[in-house]
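Protocol step 4 of 6: structure prediction from sequence.
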Amino acid sequence: MKFQLWAIGKNHEPYVKEGVELFTKRISNYYPAEWHIIPMPKNAASLSDTDVKKKEGEIIITQLQKDDYLVLLEETGKMLSSEGLAGFIQQRANESTKTIVFLIGGAYGVSDAVKKRANFTWSLSKLVFPHQLVRLILAEQVYRACSINRNEKYHHS
């Protein structure tokens, strides 16, 4: 199994880049992991919020593989504890899932087409975080889940 962590927007800001790289490298001790930053549509400034979501959605849908297991991060999704995420990841591994794609949508959310394509919708919190910070939280929580599944001490530190 491998993890792909997708985000719409700009490259990692310096204040999160080091942490994202650190946790992504740590995840790679368990499963191959890589980031895929999807640029906003070129003419996004001249489009309505709905049209931006639609264009971003088209890009996402075309880049997904048929067998990718899509986890959409969205505030309306299901909340999981760290142990719950660990169990979720272990279940995907037990099912021989080839690739889990964790998707952080754009500033306006994601299109209905992406919501329908998602295999699971996950909420990190009832709080709203900046998209850049969500990248760091996502990477850390996936690493934490992997360490829980291996019964390593990171989760207890």
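Step 5 (inspection) to follow. The chain has one domain: 2-156.
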